[in-house]
Write a structure and sequence with these properties.
Low-confidence stretches: 4-72
Distance between the termini: 51 Å
Radius of gyration: 22 Å
């Protein structure tokens, strides 16, 4: 064998050994104790409406490993309860997402490492789908977040984005020096010493019906509650377009709809939640999730959960809770939002677009895009959405081609 080939083999072996050591011995090992954060505090000049009375990743993983970690667990169609339980019991050994692994145990340390950057606010998103499906629409959510909250920190809880492919996807934001990291989540750690710990134990026993709805949706609902309880900050869905800074908000949730006569909220939504660390309401949400979980009813463990808990408990002074009206986070409902994607074709429509853009820019923190409805809709040039995104983005990639 030639000397050059031998040298190349030696170099390759050294890099492989270093990567193995990196995986087996994390650079940061911290205890499970209470994170040393200060709760969010309002910033000067922030107007809060009156409430109603009711670091980069360098962990190597193969595409096959990534696929196994984020298996959406679509249960057999039309399966009975007993059939689903038997099916899920067989799948349990494959579910890395329910385990604490060498990689996931770095979660706490990596979150604290990011938050040592003097963040103006702590943001969390959850992405349990494949990295390749984190597309232009999700990128716009991250883009507008940092444009309107440039000194904030964002943790994306995602096994699939915590990978070389995920690093490549998020690199446009890292190149802008935004405080962003994708971290493999550690669900056992997140629910430890919370009411949801018993729920996870029962699920992993294989004796619980996981439901007919894909499990990753329920795990997303659980994770957003647990991470806000243990760290405090702001949770956001990935189909959000930011219009104004939210770093001054504290202990807040938004109404999705109001009673037309009483003007009191009829439904809340958990797509945007802002809470202090260890807030008692977050504890109540986790308790409700653990004791009333139903994997067969869409929204039952999510928006309906926060609605029924707050409806039942009332607005206690110690909660220090603000319930925002719909225009704050959900200014357009899912039935009417398609109009915002359309280019105006008449003088009247042009005036409507201009007024809508002006009103939303002044009166809303963000727009929820209701991806189930709009994911396949093209954002046409000149539309309300195109104008709002164009003036609230930094990277600004693929605005008109962000549909799938």
């Amino acid at each position: 064998m030639g000397s050059k080939k031998l040298a190349m083999l030696v170099i390759f072996a050294v890099f492989a050994l270093l990567n193995l050591l990196y995986m087996e011995f994390p650079t940061c090992t911290l205890s499970d104790d209470k994170p040393p954060f200060k709760p969010n505090v309002p910033l000067p000049g922030t107007t809060v409406p009156m409430s109603t009375s009711s670091s980069s990743v360098s962990v190597v993983t193969s595409d096959q490993q990534e696929k196994e970690e984020i298996d959406p667990l679509l249960p057999p169609p039309k399966a009975t309860k007993s059939e689903r339980i038997s099916w899920f019991r067989r799948k349990l050994p494959e579910l890395e997402i329910l385990k604490s692994t060498t990689k996931s145990k770095r979660f706490h340390g990596r979150v604290l490492e990011l938050y040592n950057n003097n963040c103006s606010a702590q943001f969390f998103m959850v992405w349990l789908s494949p990295a390749k499906s984190f597309g232009p629409r999700e990128m716009l959510a991250v883009d507008t977040l940092f444009t309107t909250n440039p000194n904030a920190c964002l943790v994306i809880l995602s096994n699939s984005l915590d990978s070389p492919r995920g690093y490549t996807i998020l690199k446009p934001f890292l190149d802008q020096s935004f405080n962003l990291v994708a971290v493999t989540l550690d669900i056992p750690f997140l629910v430890k010493n919370t009411p949801a710990e018993a729920w996870l134990k029962k699920l992993k026993s294989g004796k619980m019906d996981p439901g007919s709805i894909p499990l990753f949706m329920h795990l997303s609902d659980l994770t957003r509650l647990a991470v806000l309880y243990k760290y405090g900050g702001i949770y956001l869905d990935t189909d959000i377009i930011f219009l104004n800074s939210v770093t001054g908000l504290r202990n807040a949730i938004g109404a999705q709809s109001l009673d037309p006569e009483t003007k009191r909220w009829t439904r809340l939504n958990n797509a945007v939640m802002v809470f202090d660390i260890y807030h008692p309401l977050m504890h109540e949400f986790l308790q409700e999730y653990s004791t009333t979980f139903d994997g067969n009813r869409w929204g039952y463990n999510s928006p309906y959960l926060v609605s029924r808990v707050i409806q039942r408990l009332g607005h206690k002074p110690e909660y220090n809770l603000t319930i925002f009206p719909p225009n704050a986070f959900y200014p357009v409902n899912w039935l009417k939002i398609p109009r915002l994607f359309k280019k105006p074709t008449t003088t009247g429509e042009v005036k409507w677009v201009e007024k809508t853009v002006q009103d939303m820019t002044k009166g809303s923190y963000m727009i929820h895009l209701w991806n189930k409805v709009t994911r396949k809709m093209k954002i046409e040039e000149g539309s309300v959405m195109h104008k709002l995104i164009s003036t609230h983005c930094t990277v600004c990639g693929n605005i008109t081609d962000s549909h799938t």
